[in-house]
Amino acid sequence: MSQLLYPAIRQLRDLEREFQAHLPPHPQLNPASLCLYGEVLFLLAGLKPCVLVSFDIDYATGLSAQWVSKVWSPWAARQTGSMKEKVDKVTWVKVEGDVKTEGCDFQGWWIGYRKGDVHEPRIQEIFVRTRSSDSLMISEETVAKLLAYPVSLPPIECLLKSPVELYEVGYMDVDEENKEHLIMSYGCIESDFDLVRKHFIEWKGAWEAAGGGRLRCEVRRA
C-alpha cells in the first residue's frame, strides 16, 4: 500500500462516533455494530471486495441508509487527491432482492463495493441486479469469499449431523485511549483456527501498513 489510509479513516471513525452519539437510545441497538471504519479501510486497501451493512434495528429505522447519507457521504466529499480516487470507486446500494443464506436474509441490507474489482460482476449478479420480487439462495461459502473471510461455517445440515463447537472471531482496534472497538467479526469452528491465525496476521500487517494502531484478535465460544 503506497498511501497511509488510516489518517483519513480516523476522520470516518470520528464521524461514526458523532453519528452514534446523536441516536436515540434503543434496547436492541449495539454500538459495536455501528463501527464500519475498519471494514472501509480494508475495502479501500483492496483486501475486501465488498462490505455488507445492516444494523440491529435497521428494518424499523433505515439506519444503514442514514449511515451512508450522514457518515459516508460527507466523509467521502472531504477527500482529495489519491484518497478521493479510491473513495470514488466505492458504490453503496440497497439490496432489493430476497437474497439469503441458510442463516441470514440480506434483503434490505446495504452493500458497498469497489467498481472495477475482479469480484464486481458476481457482487452485482447477487446483490445489485436482483429485484424485490426475486428470490436467491446463496451459500455461506459464497458470502465468506465476497467478504474476504478466511472460512465459512458448515451447512446447517452438517452441523445437525455432527455437532461441533462454534466460535466467534473478532478483530479489535485498540485506540489512543486503550479502548477496544470491534471492526470485524465472523464465525468459525476449531479446525479453522490455523486459517484464522494466518488471516489475522496478514490483515494486521495491512492495518499497520495503512498507519493504523494496535489490532488484536479475540476468539470466543459463540
Question: What topology does this entry show?
Answer:
Layout: H1 6-21, H2 37-44, E1 50-53, H3 58-61, H4 63-78, H5 81-88, E2 90-94, E3 98-100, E4 110-114, H6 120-128, E5 135-137, H7 140-146, H8 156-161, E6 166-174, E7 180-189, H9 193-209, E8 214-221
Parallel strand pairs: 3-5
Antiparallel strand pairs: 1-4, 2-4, 6-7, 6-8
Task: Describe what is shown at a glance.
With 222 residues, the protein is α+β, with helices and mostly antiparallel strands.
Give a structural overview.
With 222 residues, the protein is of the alpha+beta class. The protein has helices spanning 6-21, 37-44, 58-61, 63-78, 81-88, 120-128, 140-146, 156-161, 193-209; strands at residues 50-53, 90-94, 98-100, 110-114, 135-137, 166-174, 180-189, 214-221. It has a three-stranded antiparallel sheet, sandwiched between helices. The protein has a three-stranded antiparallel sheet with strand order 7-6-8. A two-stranded parallel sheet has the order 3-5. The longest helix is centred in the C-terminal third of the chain and has 17 residues, at 193-209. The mean pLDDT is 90.
N/C terminus separation? 34 Å
Overall mean confidence score, pLDDT: 90
Strand order of the largest sheet: 1-4-2
What can be said about the biggest beta sheet?
3 strands, antiparallel
How many runs of DSSP E, i.e. beta strands?
8
Poorly predicted ranges: none
Bin the strand percentage. Answer: 15-25%
Number of helices: 9
Mind telling me the C-alpha Rg? Answer: 17 Å
Helix content: 40-55%
State the shape. globular
Order of helices and strands: HHEHHHEEEHEHHEEHE
Class per helix and strand makeup: alpha+beta
